[in-house]
Structure formats: C-alpha cells, structure tokens
Amino acid sequence: MNYVIIGNSAAGIGCVEGIRNIDKDNRITIISDEAQHTYSRPLISYLLEGKTDINRMKYRPDDFYKNNKCDIKLSTRVTSIDNEKKTVSTDKDEIIPYDKLLVATGSRAFVPPFNGLDSVPHYHTFMKLDDALALDNDVKENSRIFIIGAGLIGLKCAESLHYKTKNIIIADLAERILPNVLDNECASIMQQHLEEKGFTFMLADSVEVFEGKTAKMKSGKTIDFDVLIIAVGVRPNTELVKAIGGNVNRGIVIDEHCNTSLPDIYAAGDCTESYDISADVTRILAILPNAYIQGECAGKNMAGSDCIFNKAIPMNATGLLGMHMITAGSYDGVTHIVKSDDTFKKLFVKDNRLVGYIIIGDVLRAGIYTALIRNKTPLDSIDFELIKDKPQLMAFSRTDRAKFLGSVV
Amino acid sequence: MKRIYVNEKWCLGCHLCEYYCAFANSNIKNMVDALKDVTIRPRIKIEELQSISFAVSCRHCEEPLCVKGCISGALTIKDGVITIDKNKCVGCYTCVLSCPYGAVSPSDHGVMQKCELCTQNGGEPACVKGCINKAIVFEER
To answer: What are residue A357's DSSP bridge partners?
Structure first.
C-alpha cells in the first residue's frame, strides 16, 4: 500500500495522523510546493507581531515525518494526476505511484485584474510564510500601508503591522468589515474598536485605477501608499482534480467520507466544498479545524476504516488589537441579543435549534454554543434562558450532565 | 485510562477544588502566598445554581475537538491525556470555540490553560485529593 498526500498543511497532516491511527507501517509520501517543514498558515500574522517565531510556529515537531514514517518531498509541485495508471507527476520529472491519494492542495490568494496594477512596483498577498517574510522586509517604521480587503486575512495582516506603523488604510467593496464573518451590527462594533486603535477604513469603495504608488478610488478619493497588500479572498486549488474529470464546483466535491468522485482519490481542506449543517448548504469552509478533521477522516478511510465527517460548520475565533470575537454557524432565524458592559452577543435560533452565534468581548466557554449547533440539540431539551445568559452545562438535564461529567466522552 | 469524574450529588459547592487546582499549578510552595489576595485562575471550575453545584474540567475526550482544531499545534493528545504547550500557543481562542464543555480558558499570560490531570504535579490530581466529599474522583471507567 502506497499513500500519497499532496499538501503539507493542516489537511495533509490530519491525513497522516488518520492513516497512522490505523496503518502503522505502509509508506506515506507527502509532496509540498513549499520549502518549509509543516507550519501553521494562520500564524503568519502572529509571526510578524512577534507572538511566535519560525520554530514555534511549526505545526508539528521536527521529528514528525520520521516518527510517522513519511517521505517528504519539499519544493516539489505536482503537475498532474494519472488516475488510470494511479500515479502523480511532479515538476521534478518524478512519477510517483499511489494506491490511495489525498488532494490537499489548499487555496491561493485571488488577485483581481485591477486597472493599472502593473504600474505598482510591487504588491503583496498574505497567505504563506514566504508572503509574511517578504512583507516584514518591505514594511518600515511609519510605512504607509494600503490593504485591499477587510476580511480576516486583511485585518489580521493589518494588526500584525500595527506595531511598526500606524499609517494603515483598509478598503473593502462591502459596506462593513469582516463581511463573511460578522453581521452589520457586530461589524460596526469591531470597526469602531479598530478605528480607535488607528485604522482607517474605506468601505463600499474600490480601486478605480492604480498609478504607481497611488490608488484612485471609485469614490474619488486618492490614496498614496508605500506598501500594497491585496487580501480580497482566496480561490481553491482544484485544477489537478478538474483535469482528470473529477467533480468540481467552486471547490472539489467530496462526500462524507472525503472521497472525490474518482476512485481512490480523496480531498480535504481549503480546496474542497463542505456541507454546512447549520445552513443546509454546500459551501467552501476554508478554516483550519475543518481542514484537519477532513484530512484525518480521509486518512482513516484511505487506510481501510469507515469514517464519516458530517458536522462541518463555519466558525472562527480571533482577536483584533485586544478585542476577542468568536462566531459559528449561520445568521438566520430569530435573533436573541445579550449585552453587558464588555460583551455583545447574538444567538440565532431556527426550528428549535441554535444555528449560529456571534460573541464580541467575553467569549469564554463559547464552545458550549458551538456544540449545540454541531449536535443540533433541540432547544426545548435544555434551559434556553439560562444558556442564553451565558454558556453553561447547568442548562442541560441532570442526565446529560451525568453523561458529560461522569463517563468517557 | 484514569480520568477525573464528577458526581454532582456529592458536590457541596465549597470551591476547594478550584483553590487546590490553582495552588498546584502556581509553582509556589506556600499555599498562602499562592492564593491570598490573588485572583485565581483554576482549571477546574464550579457551576452552581440554587441547590445544584458541580465541578467542570477537561474531559480528555477520545476525539478532542480542541486538539484537532488547534491552529498552532500547541494542543496535543498523548496516551489519552490532552496537554497544551504554552510556548507554542498564541492565544487565538480556537480551543475555546471548539470545546463542548467550556473547559479551556486563558491563563495569566494570555495563552490558554487547561486541566492536564496534574501530570506535571506528581500524579494524583490536586482537585481530587482536596475534594472533601469525594464528589470528584480519579479512576478508570
């Protein structure tokens, strides 16, 4: 048995751990187009801030590949899959046979064709370790930073530069910041916090044309910058699977076993689409926990087990310049708002279930809410008024509590 | 493996487990120095309402969502025990988002902390040793 994994991030590592859960011996080959030992992509902003370093941000220890009997091929790009001969070809002219293949190719930064972008001497994206190192090199004290995109990537990037320079302008086509993570009301709370810390936002606005290091906006405003960062979104890397006729919509289509439409080819992570059980829709959920769990599920199945992952939901935890927020699920149904001095919370209830929540401020124990969404807990089986006030196990029945605290879970 | 289990029928709501936990993890030899005039951050916490009370700490889940979701690789599971490498944790709170029991919380240093079954404190969990009514036990189930 030969296992081949394309990708060396969360989904690929999850796959290794899933396989090794079952099969301790057979060969695993990991192929990565990056040069580094597996590292955590979401930590690149923490790296620039100095909250971690290149060594500590390794996603697994130095001896991970050795301990898990993995052959690792770094700086190697897979150019094609031959699903009839069951081989993958690389840009180093290798042909590597597989019995079971995982495609964990992730996503790449999307750069729209802005007018005049080629007149800008250099621009950055912010996804990989190399991106972070290049940016760190270019940003000097008091550099004027212009970030396009007020999503999580753009804002975490802005936060990580804040210690070097306060000249940060962030533009977004949407009317609010974090358009995919927050609703209008919560976004305005976070926006106000970030503006108090010195960020400048230009919302519902976009670049008409670049002229060198100047951006002329559709609103008529002009922005002069030293460093341009494009963080408008990501696109899944689906080409390898598409080229051999695998089902691909926006992302690679997989089933509950993380199997693609092609035999012996699995896919996991940002390159795939997930079924979001909080909204009953298929969408790309490009978040690390989802990538790991899909990868692990695929790995177990590649090794002959029968593992199902059918609890995917969108979710995010992050802090921005000292303010924490946690969100999960979909923002649909009846809204319950709970406010206190330091916290703003919204719970979304539909058909006797919690389907989503947003908390800004005191986020402690929020996972109790996440579990209600994942488990589709009927709200009439718990004390909703109690749990609405704060997440707590007291809201569950005595029997449930005895199970949570008195048995192996 | 041995885990901590809680039986709410026997819990008196005395909060001693919280103090024993905070003391055991303080690295301070004298209990008074460790606890007096200090806002403690125990890894086991009492929930109470009217006549009901019980302690909640990490369940050391067999399929730990905190470990699977940890973005830095700081949370790991070995021989069933889930521990956190404070040196790797960046305090992103993804474990707080993931834990169904609300059993991971921030430490004094911004990074997260959780019950590690006193594996660093000599074996028998301090909360269990200190529970005066045996509402918290450490055993195989």
So the answer is: A328, A347
- Domain interval for residue B103: 60-114
CA dist A91 and A77 (Å) reads: 6
Within the 64-123 window of chain A, which residues sit less than 8 Å (CB to CB) from chain B?
none
A370 shares contact with chain B (CB less than 8 Å): yes
Sheet holding A123-124, edge to edge: A123-124, A227-230, A145-148, A168-172, A200-203
**Which of A233, A265, A287 finishes a domain?**
A233
Q: Out of A43, A293, A408, whose CB is closest to B3? A: A408
Q: How far apart are CA B24 and CA A325, in angstroms?
A: 31
Distance CA A213, CA B46 (A): 57
**Structural domain of A336:** 322-405
Query: Domain end: A211, A233, A255, which one?
Result: A233
Instruction: Note the pTM of the prediction, 2 decimals.
Output: 0.96
C-alpha angle A157-A163-A164 in degrees, rounded to nearest 5: 90
Measured between CA atoms, how close is A203 to chain B, in angstroms? Answer: 26
Q: What token pair was written down for A105? A: 């190719």
pLDDT in tens, A373-392: 999 999 999 999 999 999 99
CB-based contact, A321 to chain B, within 8 Å: no
Rounded-to-integer distance, Cα A221 and Cα A357, Å: 36
Average pLDDT for residues B6-19, to the nearest whole number?
96
A321: left (phi over 0), alpha (psi -120 to 50) or beta: left
In this structure, are A76 and A93 located in the same domain? Answer: yes
